Amino acid sequence: MADFLARLGRSGLHWLALLGRASIFLFRVLSAQDAVVRRFRLTLIEIYSVGVRSLLIIVVSGLFVGMVLGYQGYITLVNFGATEALGGAVALSLVRELGPVVTALLFAGRAGSALTAEIGLMKTTEQLSAMEMMAVDPYRRVFAPRFFAGFLSLPLLAAMFSAVGVMGGYIVGVGLLGVDAGSYFSQMQAVTDWREDVLSGVIKSIVFGFVVTWIAIFQGFDAEPTSEGISRATTQTVVISALAVLGLDFVLTGLMFT
Amino acid sequence: MNDDRVADTPHVVVEDLVFRRGRKVVFDGLSLTVPRGRVTTVMGPSGTGKTTLLRLIGGQLRPDSGRIWVDGEEVARLSTRRLYALRKRMGMLFQTGALLTDMNVFENVAFPLREHTDLPEELIRNLVLMKLEAVGLRAARDLSPAELSGGMARRVALARAIALDPDMILYDEPFAGLDPITMGQIVTLIQRTNSTLGLTSVLVTHDVVEALDISYHVVLIAEGRVMDAGTVEQVRAGASEWSKQFLEGRPDGPVPFHYPGDSYRDDLMRDRESGNG
Amino acid sequence: MKLRYLEMSVGLFVLLGIAALFYLAIQVSNIVEYRDGDTYEVIAYFDHIGGLKVRAPVTVSGVRIGRVSDIAYDPERFQARVVLAIRSGQDHLPADSQASIFTAGLLGEQYVGLEPGGDFEVLSDGDEILLTQSALVLENMIGRVLTNFSSD
Lengths: 258, 277, 152
What we know:
heterotrimer; A: mainly alpha; 10 helices; 87% helix; elongated; C: alpha/beta; 2 domains; 8-stranded mixed sheet; 3 helices
C-alpha cells in the first residue's frame, strides 16, 4: 500500500514537472513569435507542410461524415415525418461539434505526429544543438513558425470540414433520399446561428489548434533522444492530443452553449 | 595591439569546474587552459564527460560552480545576445555531423551565412564553394545529408563550422567510427584548418595515436578531474601511472577493468546461499 | 519556381479556409439577419410563452420580419416579457397590432406572429404591444375540454 502511494506520488510529481516544462516551453515559443513575421518564408513552408498537406484527409473525411449524418439524420427524422429538419440537424452537428473535434483529432494524427517526429529527430541527431552552437535560436528558427502554422491551419481546416460536410449531407439527403432542397437550406439557416453556433465552433477549433500544436511540438522537443523515445513521443502526441481535445470540448461546450 | 601578448593569453580557461548530472558528479574541480592558436586535445576514457565539457564551453550547459572563460568572457554570465555573439566566433563539429536534414549540402554550409549575414547570393555561393573545396566536397554540393557517408558528413559539418571564419573550433570525437582512410583525411583536415586559418582547436577524443600526432597541448581527464596536462612531450615524458595506462592502452591499472562493486567471490557465495535457502 | 508554388498553394489553402467560413456564414447560418443589422425593439407580455426560444422568428402574414431577442420573466406583472427585434425597414406596423405565439407544424418550432390592427399610429422602438395571445398549452386545452364535458 505504502509502495503504491509512493509510486502514485512519484508519477504525480513526474506529471507536474512535465507540465512545468511544457509551460516554460510554451512561454518561450510564444515570446519568439516575432520570428513568424520576420522569417515569413519559413512560416510559409510550415503552413504548407502542416496545413496544405492535411487538406485532402480533412476534405474527404468531412464529405463522408456529412454523408453519414445526412443518412442517419434522415432515418431518425423520417419517423416523425420531419425530414425537412435534416439540414438543421446536419449543420448543427457539424458546426458545433464534429467539425472542430474530428478535424482536431485528424490533425493530431496527421500533422501533430509528423511535427513530433520531425522535431524529435532533429533533437536526436543534434540538429537543434548544432543550431544553438551556430548562434541560431531554435525557438525562432524551428518552433515558432511551426506553432503559428498549426495554430492558423486548424481553424481553417475545421471550417472546410464543416462546409464540405454540409455538402455531403446535401448529396445524401437531397440527392439520394429526396429531401426538398429548399427546406434543407432554409431549415439549416433557421436553426444555425452565426454567432452562437458558427463562431463558437471557430473558437473551439482555435483552442484545439493551439493545444494540439503545443502538445505536438513539445513532445518532439521533450522526446528522449533515441528511436524508441521518438516513437513513444509520437504516440503520446496522438493520445494526449485526443484526450485534451475531447476534454476541452466538454468544457468549452459547457461554457459556450448554455 | 601587442600580438605576442594576445598569443600568450589562453583562449579558454576552466577553473574549479563542478558539474553534476542528477546525482552523478561529472566534473569535480576541473581546471584547464587551452592555448590560443594551437590544437589542444582533451582525452579520457569513455563516459568521463568530454562532450559535456564542450557543451559547457559553448554555453549550452551551465556549471554548478566554478568558472569558464572564453576569449576573456565568462560564458555562464553572458546574456543570450552576448552568448550568441560569442558562439558566432566559435565553430563546433558534432560527432554525427548534425547536418540539417531538410537541406542539401550546399544549403547546410550556407546556413550560418544566411542566418547571420545579408550577403548577396553570389557572394554566399562563392564562400560556400570555397569552404566545400577546402574539405574536398565541392562536387557533392547537391547531395542530401542522407546520401553522405559518416566521414563525408563530418567534412561537410567542418565546412559549415568554418563558414563564419571562427576563432576556435570544438571537435567532438572527430575520429569515432571512421575507417583508416577517412580518419587520415579528417586528421589532415583538422591540421590544415588549424595551421592555415590560425584557429584554436579543441579536440575531444579517445583515439590516442591520431590525436597526439597533431596536438600541441594535451589534457587527460578522468573521474571528473585533470589527471595530467601539458605539451605532448611533457605528458609523454612525465608519464604518471594513469597516463601511461591510458596512452599505452593497458586493460588494467589505475583505471580498473571491473566496474566497481563487491568482490566476485562474495557475489557467487550469496547466490549459493539464496539458492539453498 | 519552387517558392512560387509554395506561396500559391499556401495562398490557395488560406483562401479555401476563408471561403469555407463564408459559406458557413451565408449559406448555413443566419448571418443575413445580422447583416441587415438595424432593428428596433418592441415589447410584448404573454401569460404563457410555451416553448418559445430566443432567436425564434417574428412574422407578419407568414413573412419573417424579425426575431425574438430576449425572453425574461417580469415579477411585477407575473408575465413573460418578450422582446421582439424587428427590422428597421418594417416600420409600418399599426400600434394596435396583436402578437400571438404559434407553432409551425405539429412538432415544429414556435414563433411570434403579428396581426396588424387599424391604428394610424405605428409601433416604434420601445413600444409595447398590448394585445397578446399566449401559446396554446396542450394540458390546459385538454383540461378545459374535460371541465366543459363534466359541466355539461
